[in-house]
Amino acid sequence: MNCLRNFLRVLACTLLVSALPSGFAYAGDNDDGDRHHGDHAFKIDVLSSRPYMVSGGDALVRVTVKKKDVSLGSVRIELNGANITGAFRADAGARTLTGVVTGLRLGENELSVDAKGKGRADADITLTNYPIQGPIISGPHEFPFACTTASFVPFTGTPALGPSSEPNCSVATRVQYVYRSTAGTFKSLPAGPLPTDVATTATGVPYIVRLETGTINRAIYQTAILHNPNDAAPSPFSPPAGWNKRLVFPLGGGCIGGWYFQGSDIESVVNHSYLNLGYAVAASTLTTFGNNCNDLLSSETVIMVKERFVESYGVPLFTIGTGGSGGAYQSNQTGDNYPGTFDGIVTTSSFPDVTTGMLPMGNSRLLDILFTQTRLGVFSVAQMKAISGYLSVAAYDPVAKTIPGMINHMSNVRAPRMDPRDTFPDQILPGVGPQFRYVPAPTNPFGARGDVYDHTVNVYGVIPNTPFPGSAKFAQRPLDNVGLQYGLKAVNDGVITVDQFLDVNEVIGGFDIDFNHVANRTVHYRDATKRAYQGGRILNGGGGLRSMAIITRMGAGDLNVNGDVHVRYHAQAIRQRLINANGNADNQAIYGNLAPMAMMIEQMDRWLTAVKADGSDRSLREKVIANRPADVVDACWKTGSNLPGDKISEPQTLDGPGECNKRFPVGLSPELVAGSPLSVDIIKCQLKAIDMNDYKVSFNPQQRAKLAATFPNGVCDWSKKGVKQVKSKPWASYGPSPVNQVFDIQDRRRHGDDDDDD
Length: 758
What we know:
Elements: H1 2-15, E1 36-38, E2 42-46, E3 54-55, E4 59-65, E5 75-79, E6 82-83, E7 88-91, E8 96-101, E9 107-117, E10 119-130, E11 174-180, E12 186-188, E13 208-216, E14 219-226, E15 246-251, H2 272-275, E16 280-284, H3 295-313, E17 318-324, H4 326-337, E18 344-348, H5 354-374, H6 381-388, H7 406-414, H8 457-460, H9 488-492, H10 498-507, E19 510-511, E20 517-518, H11 526-534, E21 549-553, H12 569-582, E22 588-591, H13 597-613, H14 620-626, E23 635-637, E24 647-649, H15 659-663, H16 670-673, E25 687-688, H17 701-710, E26 715-716, H18 745-750
Helix pairs in contact: 3-4, 5-7, 10-17, 13-14
C-alpha cells in the first residue's frame, strides 16, 4: 500500500496542473455522438451528463476551439439567446472554454457558440433539462411513496435533515465538515481554528472531509471529499487539493421490502478506507437495494448524483462502482446498461441481475412445496440435493415444517420478494400503511403491490385486460417454467428414478400473478420478457461491460447449513455472458470469496490508471485488456490474509479440477440441473420435440407416454436463444426522455417492428 500512497501523491500533484481531465465521456468504445457536438471550428462537450439527460438546471460544458485562426477572446457563447460567455474560463494551451451553465429551463435549451475573426463559424447543442426530482429515463414516479428525510441523520450527533416537501421528498442541501481524529474516529468539525487532534491522511493532507447531503431523484444522496474549509471553495476549476481525482460509488445490498419509500439506509460515504487515500465517495438511499430493488431507478439515480458531483468538483479521472449482493446487481447492470457511468467495477457476493436472480428463488419455492407438501417423505436428502443442485440440504424438519438449508432459505427467506402481499415497509413507515396495500379482491385489489415486478412496472408494463379494470399495479412478469425438466441431471446421473423424474415434472406446477402455487406451469408475458432483455434488466454483458475493467468476487453460500443466496455459480454466469457477448472475458477476473477488499480496490486503481494513461489508438476494450495488471488473475484465498502463500492463482470454474474447487465446492441451481446453459439468462426457453437421446436412462412405453403427456408442446431446447431474447439497448429510456426509448410490443408494431424475433 505504501507504493500506492506515494503514487497517489505524485499523481494528485500532476492532475492539479489541469483543472479538468480530458477524455471523459458517458459512452462506450466509439460512441461519442451523444456527447460531442460542433462543426469544423468548434466542438461542444457536456462533461456532467449526456446533453439530453441534464437535470437540476445546470451543466458543466466545455467548448474546444479547433480552428487556429479563431482566438479564444473572440468566442461568444449564448444560452437561449442570452450571452453567458462570462461563465466560461479559458485555457489557452488546450484552446478550450469551460463553464457551469446555469439557469436552464425545463425542456430544451439552445446553447450556441460563434466567433468573429477570419470568417464566421458557429456551432450549437440542445440541452434537455429535467427536474432534479426526476424522472429522466425510469418512467413515472411510484406512488404511494413515503419520505424519510425527517429522520435521516447525515452524520452522527448532527440534526436530522427535517421534513421534506411532498410529494418529491425534497430538502435543502446541507454541507458540513467532519474530520478524522488522531484517535481514529470521525468527529464533527467545530467552527474556528482546527482542532489539535486532526489526523493526516495517507496522502499527506489534513484529514478533513466536506460532507454534502441533499435530495436527488427523490433519493437522499451524500458525497464526501477531502477539503479544508480554510482553503478556497471547491469548484470544477479549483478542485480540493486532497482529492486524488478518483470517485468511488458504493452501492448497497438487500431487496426485500425495497419499494414505496425514500429509504433510510445508505452506504457510508465517510469511509476511512477510501478517504484516507484521497478518493471521493458518493452514495444515495435509492442506490441501496434494501430501499429500492429496481436497477433502472438505481442507475438513473447514480447518473444524476454523479452529474451533481461533476458540476461541483470536476470530472473524475475514473469512477469505480462497487457493492455486494444487491450492490453487485447494480454495479453490473449500471455498468453494462449505461456505458461510461463507471469505468471499472469491483463486486462481492456477485450476481448478474435482479430478473434472472428470481429464477432459482421461484423454482426453489416450487421444490419446497413439492418436498414439504405434495410429495412429503418421498425423496431422500441426496435426491433433493440432486434435483435442486444445492449442496446444503437437510432432512425434513417436522416441527418447522421445512427442508433446512438452501431450499428453505431460497423459498421462504428470499422468494417473498416475488409475492405482492408479503413484504412492505409499512411497519416502519405510517405513510405507506395498510390502507394502501394490495389485498386480493374483494378487499383492496387496487392497492400497491410490494414485489420486484410491480416495483418495475414501468419496464414490464401492465397486464392487459386485468381482472380489476383501472388497476395500474398488476405488472406483467418475465417468468416461465413451461418445458423445464426439473431434475434432468439427477435422473441422467441415476440419483432419482425415471418414475420420480416424471412425477416431479407432472406435479411441480407454477404460480399465478399473486405468487400462489397453481397446478399449471407459469407462462411468461411476451412483452415483459422482451422488454427485460431490451433494457438490460437481464444482464447482457456486451454493453458497457465489454470495455470495462471487472473484478468479480464470488459469494460463499454454497455450504451454509442455513442456506445463503450468495452462491458461487453466479460469478460463472457473469463470465459466460461476457464470453457470449464479446467472444472472451479477458477484461474480468474472478476471485474467491476471501479476496481482501482493500487489495481489489488497489488493483482496480492501478488497472484504470494504466488504461487512462494509454495514449494509443486502440479501442477502449483493447486498452482495458492490454493494461490488465499481472496480478489481476483468477484466484482464491485460503484465509483472506493476503500473506505470501495465501493466494491460489488458478482458473475459477464451475466444476473443474483445482485446489480452489476442492477447498470451496460450487453448487448448482434447479435451472442448471434442468439443463440451462451456464449463463442462466433464458427466461422462456424455446421448445423442441422430446428426444429420447437426451436421456441416459431407458424409459418403458408407459413412461414415454407419461413424458409426452407432461410436456405436450415439447421440452426446453437449450441450444437456442430464449424466446424474445434480444441484445440490450445501451442508454435505454422508459420515459420521459424520448431518446432510446423502449416501446412495448404494441407500440413497436405501430413503429414498424413486426416483432418476429423468436
